[in-house]
Amino acid sequence: MTIEVGILGATGMVGQQFIALLANHPWFKVTWLGASERSAGKVYSEATSWRLPARLPDDVATRGVDAATPGRAPKLVFSGLDSSVAGEIEGAFAQAGHVIVSNSRNYRMEADVPLLIPEVNADHLALLKQQTRSRAWKGRIVTNPNCAVVVHAMALAPLRRFGLKTTTITTLQAISGAGYPGVASWDILGNVIPYIGGGEEEKVETETRKILGCLRDGGVEPHPIVISAQTTRVGVQNGHTGSISVGFEHPPSADAIVEAWRTFRGRPQELDLPSAPPQPIVYLTEPNRPQPALDADQDRGMRISIGRLRPCPVLDFKFIALGHNTIRGAAGAAILNAELMRAEGLL
Ligand SMILES: NC(=O)c1ccc[n+]([C@@H]2O[C@H](COP(=O)([O-])OP(=O)(O)OC[C@H]3O[C@@H](n4cnc5c(N)ncnc54)[C@H](OP(=O)(O)O)[C@@H]3O)[C@@H](O)[C@H]2O)c1
Q: How do beta strands 28-35 and 66-67 pair?
């Protein structure tokens, strides 16, 4: 049975990626588009500046854009809203009975809101019981992590068995992570910007611990790992790279780490969800990989690519990890969350 879906923030960078990824989805069909008052009343092709190589589907191009108010949208709504407005708008939709599957930061760290990477913490969907008890919402909100967090948390998740103790990450983040038009070309060409606004480093340090944490007494106990993050913006179109070091309680061999990544699977693979990559983490043995230009799009942008694992003289090991920020780090992540919810009977 086809499930109708809406997209809040449909005209943005993440909104466009939702439209591209949902174009031939076996379960979900886009029937509603919402954005700001600037776009409301226009047809979609006039309201947006389409930036993706995938063709804008005709039925979406000619669809009218609505204001971001509940009423006409279907029950399931994906959100790629700007975080300055997402809190209020997503809350209003949840209150009105919609299931909001959101990319925005506003609800991620709320104690009763699942912050999901389905391969890592599908069990955190149990927080929805608490959400239903504690909020006056007829609907619900589920979130996916920040786009840099997904790369770090996926790389660390299979290594939890070795006792994760400490980690550092320095990111090199793509310009598409700042939306469109994002950073001015004058600022980013031939440059590295050592600051990403909106508390990016704090998000990497807090969201990762929630995702890797355990359910206890109806809430999530964050993982005790100590995290230090530095985030930079670089002149790459798509794909966030992380230069990561990690220290363990029981340092394993390099082979054991690669094997843990190679064999890592989760609930989406078990359930054979439509957007699940067959192998969520791929270790590349070439010394000059992963690279955003070559590896970000692999497996429809849904896999994390890792390479250059070697001993670290400060912590135990260091490596490079990469993920597609608007797919695995945003729209693809939210679609996988909704697929998981449907498969678990939560839609
Ligand atoms: N880009 C990434 O890699 C990435 C990754 C993970 C998470 N995210 C998060 O996803 C969200 C969207 O990011 P983006 O990169 O797609 O941003 P974007 O390109 O700037 O798009 C923002 C969207 O929000 C809408 N919007 C802005 N103000 C609004 C208002 N007052 N009322 C209703 N809608 C409003 C815009 O509509 P108009 O076109 O009508 O202004 C547009 O559709 C953000 O919260 C971001 O932090 C982004």
A: parallel
Cα of 48 vs centre of ligand 1, distance in Å, is 12
Task: For a ligand 1 pocket test, name from 14, 107, 173 the mutation site with the most ligand atoms within 8 angstroms of its C-beta.
Answer: 14
Burial string for 87-111 (b: 16+ CB within 10 Å, else e) reads eebbbebbeeebbbbbbbbbbbbee
Dump the DSSP string for 45-97. HHH-----SSPPPHHHHTSBPEES-TTSS-SEEEE---HHHHHHHHHHHHHTT
Q: 105: which 2 tokens?
A: 């930061």
Q: For 81, phi and psi rounded to 5 degrees?
A: -80, 150
Q: Which amino acid is at 290?
A: P
What three-state secondary structure class fits 119?
helix
Q: Point out the residues that are catalytic.
A: 147, 240
Report whether residue 258 contacts ligand 1, using a CB cutoff of 6 Å.
no
Measure 38 CA to ligand 1 centroid, in angstroms.
Answer: 13
- Tell me the CA–centroid distance for residue 182 and ligand 1, in Å: 11
Listed in order, strand segments (DSSP E) in 76-200 are 76-79, 99-102, 140-143, 164-173, 192-193
Give the pTM.
0.98
Strands 28-35 and 3-8: parallel
Query: Dihedral sign, CA of 121, 127, 129, 131?
Result: negative
Contacts of 342 (CB under 8 A, 6+ apart): 3, 27
- Is residue 35 within 6 Å of ligand 1 at its C-beta? yes
Q: Which of 1, 62, 52 is nearest to 29 (CA)?
A: 1
Q: Residue 1: its pLDDT value, please? A: 84
Of 36, 45, 49, 82, the residue with max ligand 1 atoms within 8 A of its CB, to mutate for a pocket test, comes to 82
Is residue 104 in contact with ligand 1, taking CB distance under 6 Å? yes
pLDDT at 189: 97
> What backbone phi and psi angles, to 5 degrees, belong to 304?
-100, 130
Q: pLDDT tens across 277-306, in order?
A: 999 999 999 999 999 999 999 999 999 999
